[in-house]
């Protein structure tokens, strides 16, 4: 099973048939996701152990982040970022909100926010760094997508199964994480998967 990806690089307007809009009216605007809404990827189904990530969070106003194990508009896990230095790992259960964990860090328009669900373990990552870790058994399965409020804007989205999906690392984040502080990769050679991920040469994919 492969990853799903959307770079939102198309004409302004509706998200398109790949997305199932659960609430709101998120749109394509200037090659990005813009606006309030909750939507899950509709063109594929994924294993219960899954991830969802967004790149380039630009909050003109509002808040939001990637979501996983999405049952419906009222039941899902997601990352909440509102432009401050505090980012939270949240559960929405029967319409009620509970913060599972939180962290402080700088999120800018090149950052990658990623949420993963493996068994009852729910985690959040900022770029390649694990920043939140929680245990919750509310949802065992579901879809992957995005939750946003107000003027939240995202440059691209990636989601899929943990197994075989590089742990959910985007191209930018995976290359940054594999390289050293000076940008060197320690002599390792990398190849690009069709999903856009970079993996060590010779590794199975």
Describe this structure in words.
The strands form four sheets. The chain has a seven-stranded antiparallel β-sheet with strand order 2-5-15-8-9-10-11, with no helix packed on it. The longest helix has 8 residues, at 171-178. It is globular and about 40 Å long. Strand 8 and strand 9 (75-81) form a beta hairpin. It is 4% helix and 50% strand. The model is unreliable at 170-205 (pLDDT under 50). It has one helix at 171-178; strands at 4-6, 19-24, 27-28, 33-34, 37-41, 50-55, 58-59, 63-72, 75-81, 86-93, 96-104, 112-118, 121-126, 129-135, 143-149, 152-154, 156-161, 190-192, 198-200. By secondary structure, the protein is mainly beta. The protein has one helix and 19 strands.
The biggest beta sheet is recorded as: 7 strands, antiparallel
Q: Name the structural class.
A: mainly beta
Give a count of the beta strands, DSSP E runs of length 2 or more: 19
Mean pLDDT: 81
Distance from first to last alpha carbon: 11 Å
Q: How do the strands of the widest beta sheet line up side by side?
A: 2-5-15-8-9-10-11
Q: Give, in order, the helices and strands.
A: EEEEEEEEEEEEEEEEEHEE
| Poorly predicted runs of 5 or more residues | 170-205
Helical coverage, percent range: under 10%
Strand residue percentage: over 45%
Rg over CA atoms: 16 Å
Key terms:
19 strands; 1 helix; six-stranded antiparallel sheet; 4% helix; disordered C terminus; mainly beta
